Amino acid sequence: MTHLIPCPFCRSTNIDPEGWASTDRAGPACDDCAGTADTVELWNTRPAPHPVHAYVEGYEFRFDGGGAYTPNDRDKAMLEDAIEGYLSPPRLSKSLEEINKVFIDATQDAQAEADQIGLPRVGV
User: Fold this and answer.
1) Are 98 and 85 in the same domain?
2) With the C-alpha atoms ordered 9, 14, 15, 18, is the resulting torsion angle positive or negative?
């Protein structure tokens, strides 16, 4: 029996080790969220848990009037993703130089079109 750790996406333990057997691939798949990997080794390879994971594991929401709610595994995964996303530095898909070049190119294209139809230049 192959050992598979819980799904990295929804934390489910309902993992089919041959989830892709119906295709030309044969990697594991989560039966709950359809998360997949090419091999068992890839499925079981994860970075070390972030401190957020430990926080979320013990998380409990307490109501003002008494009572509490302890999130299920799926709610914990969503909460962890939200916290990590909030704490992560923003990632730009392009450098400022690339953005500036796109802006300059668009401005020049717009000016060329304006010149073609005889619009006066503004702010030049």
Assistant:
1) no
2) negative
* Span 92-116, pLDDT tens digits: 666 777 778 888 888 888 888 888 8
User: 33 near 44, Cβ under 8 Å?
Assistant: no
User: Which one-letter DSSP state was computed for residue 11?
Assistant: -
| Cβ–Cβ under 8 Å, residues 107 and 99 | no
Q: Are 76 and 56 in contact (CB under 8 A)?
A: yes
101 and 124 in a common domain: yes
- Does residue 51 sit in helix, strand or coil? helix
Domain that holds residue 31: 1-46
The total number of structural domains in the chain stands at 3
Q: What angle do CA 76, 53, 27 make, to 5 degrees?
A: 75
Residues 100 and 124 occupy one common structural domain: yes
pTM greater than the 0.85 cutoff: no
